[in-house]
Amino acid sequence: MEAALTKKDCIITSYRDHCTFVARGGTLLEVFAELNGRQAGCSRGKGGSMHFYKKDSNFYGGHGIVGAQVPLGCGLAFAQKYCKDEAVTFALYGDGAANQGQLFENLNISALWDLPAILVCENNHYGMGTAEWRAAKSPAYYKRGDYAPGLKVDEMDALAVKQACTFSKEHALKNGPIILEMDTYRYHGHSMSDPGSTYRTRDEITGVRQDIEKEVRKELDNAVAQAKENPVPESSQLFTDVYAKGLGVEL
């Protein structure tokens, strides 16, 4: 995706925001410091896992409410068109959020106003822990746009993703919104409490997975160690970053 974009383009996503933040130029130290509530975190230790942020790269997070990032993403696309930025917004959501009403409301107004919005459904087939065929009567999410075109893309193929994003950006700038369904696979469970094997077999997981963890484990361990040594925010920071500068309390 990043290979098809510039930093003028916006990305907004769900609480699965960690790798997207790194792809936008964030560091591992900023990741782990934020996870540990430390000052060096990308949100100064006050956002936590679900609220990563990188303003200089137009990465707007990390959102904990299922599907709520889509309306914000369409708002970013509105701002881009209003300001004539010649840039687009990629709003990412999972298959578990694909039935949210707010998604369709915002796709409708984005199509009415020809906003440069690309709605990306990252379909890992299991949502929080429910197979897509049990949650959606029609799991062909790229066809859900009706009046907006859609593409299904093999997200496990980096070159296919790049090509699809390049095409989608060109389309959105000229014609308005488009939907991308990124067909992918989740190796782990939804959360720490989910072993990931109650609704699928271990053979299925190992059949898809290719183990590259050893190559990056040393780098990750080093970043974790630095994050733990970083101080927590000062108590005076509790009331900062609440209002825009000049519009609220400044300490």
Automatic annotation (TrEMBL):
Cofactor(s) needed: thiamine diphosphate
Keyword Phosphoprotein among UniProt keywords: no
Claim: Heme is one of the keywords in the record: no
UniProt-listed CDD domains: TPP_E1_PDC_ADC_BCADC
Residues annotated as transmembrane: none
InterPro entries the record matches: DH_E1, PDH_E1_Alpha_Subunit, THDP-binding
BP GO annotations: pyruvate decarboxylation to acetyl-CoA
Coiled-coil features, chain-numbered ranges: none
Keywords: Oxidoreductase, Pyruvate, Thiamine pyrophosphate
GO molecular function, one term: pyruvate dehydrogenase (acetyl-transferring) activity
Domain Dehydrogenase E1 component: 1-210
Family annotation (PANTHER family): PYRUVATE DEHYDROGENASE E1 COMPONENT SUBUNIT ALPHA (PTHR11516:SF60), PYRUVATE DEHYDROGENASE E1 COMPONENT, ALPHA SUBUNIT BACTERIAL AND ORGANELLAR (PTHR11516)
Name this polypeptide is given: Pyruvate dehydrogenase E1 component subunit alpha
Lineage: Eukaryota, Viridiplantae, Streptophyta, Embryophyta, Tracheophyta
